[in-house]
Specification:
disulfide bond; elongated; two-stranded antiparallel ribbon; Thyrotropin subunit beta; secreted; mainly beta; three-stranded mixed beta sheet; 1 helix; about 130 residues; signal; hormone activity; Cystine Knot Cytokines, subunit B
């Protein structure tokens, strides 16, 4: 390895995160409505990756807000809307979902992010599946 690469890696580890470790990543979400005939598999991007976190030894001396850990979260996102096939006329067939444009390491905002990792897999279809590539 070149000395420049080693120094860059050490600098990134010492002074925060390295940008390539928290980035938009391809992800498939499954969406279905009880009234609709199909489940829709949507290919999108989410923020995923590693962020440097420092855990303090003096937890009892610090405010709770000072103890939050950095997570890989949205820096910039947009919303797209997909049409779920097989919905009756009285049901809205539209589903809006976020698309990560860029990501950052920061505090998790529960307004638009799920900050807890589920242990149970809930991203699946119970109805016939249609694929949506937007």
């Amino acid at each position: 390895m070149s000395p420049f690469f080693v120094m860059s890696l050490l600098f990134g580890l010492i002074f925060g995160q390295t940008a390539s470790l928290c980035a938009p990543s391809e992800y498939t979400i499954h969406v279905e409505k009880r009234e609709c005939a199909y489940c829709l598999a949507i290919n999108t991007t989410i923020c995923a990756g590693f962020c440097m976190t420092r855990d303090s030894n003096g937890k009892k001396l610090l405010l709770r807000s000072a103890l939050s850990q950095n997570v890989c979260t949205y820096k910039e996102m947009l919303y797209r809307t997909a049409l779920i096939p097989g919905c009756p006329h009285h049901t809205s067939p539209y589903y809006s979902y976020p698309v990560a444009v860029s990501c950052k390491c920061g505090k998790c905002n529960t307004d638009y992010s799920d900050c807890v990792r589920d242990r149970v897999r809930t991203n699946y279809c119970t109805k016939p599946q249609k694929l949506c590539n937007l």
